[in-house]
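User: Quick sanity check before I run a bigger batch. Here is a single chain. Can you write out its predicted 3D structure?
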Amino acid sequence: MITPATTMQNRLEEIAALRCIGIILVVLGHSFPVDPGSGSVWIYRYIGSIDMPLFMCISGYLFRFTGGANRDFPHFVRKKAVLLLIPYFVLSTIAFVPKALLGELALRPVAMNAEAYAHSMLFPLDNAVIYFWYLPTLFLISLCGPLLIRTLASRLAIAAMTAALVWLDLAHPLGGVKLLDLAGVASYLIFFWIGCVLAAYRETCDSLFKRRLTLAVSFVAILLLHLIRSYWHAAAVDLLLSLCGIALAFAFGKLYASKGYKLFAYLDGFTFQIYLLSWYFQSFVEVALHRVLHAPVPVVMPAMFVAGLLPPVWIARWVAKHKPALGVLIGMKTKARAKPVYERAIPLLLKKE
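Assistant: Done. Predicted structure follows.
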């Protein structure tokens, strides 16, 4: 007999698997030393259409699933600021100086002055670590969480909110606003919202995602949409591509959990740290092997992938064991070893039950 605890654990194991899938896609997408005009630019678009929308969707899912909107809102804001903004400022500052010193060797050179530093902080897409645009963007989106959760009260409100957020993504009314990546906030709200909806209707969604047909249809749809995108690059195609990618990932996560696979066990609990630290190692390998030694791409790519995936886990494990007080600098929520997501959430969910 399946107990409620087992059922909840399986659900959150799926989300843990999705986080691992997402971070593998992120690291893989950053493992291509692409020069302007290179024919492999398409791989960025292929992976980029799925990875960050998936992470935004997972964030919305967990926000709704763990009752984030039911807590004291000022406390929630402080907690999110510590988790997202402290690593943003600290790790961006650490990266700024060596990147400025690299000069033209850097893919995006920055000047060594206070104005350039302030600009990199206030305009996340121009940050010394471009990956970090996600952190302030997710922080601002999270502030909208309570309003989104209240909208789940009626199906009419859900339809209206979905239409409004789809319009925000397709029309790009803030497309020129790069300050605090407000344009990105407007575009990615739809994926956070989709995550909230999936969590609110998780029983229905579970029955859909566990079907092998969903896995097959999502995969075929992605291939067709990428083919269409080659000839007709429209915002609507990009949105459909991201939604199909999310559906494919959730269906795979359902299959992964139902089979009891442990392929991602080593990464589970450290995906955020991989995201925060992978740039340093991948950039070092890219500069050393590709730009200085001119190693062939088939050598550089695997080296960048491994460098972006494993060293951050080693550092996070070392910090958790030997210097837990430093964990806040790399997005670790507790002073103990980072636990898999289902271990952290089960006590709260059982209490709610």
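Residues 1-7, 335-353 have pLDDT under 50 and may be disordered.

User: Great, the batch can go ahead then.
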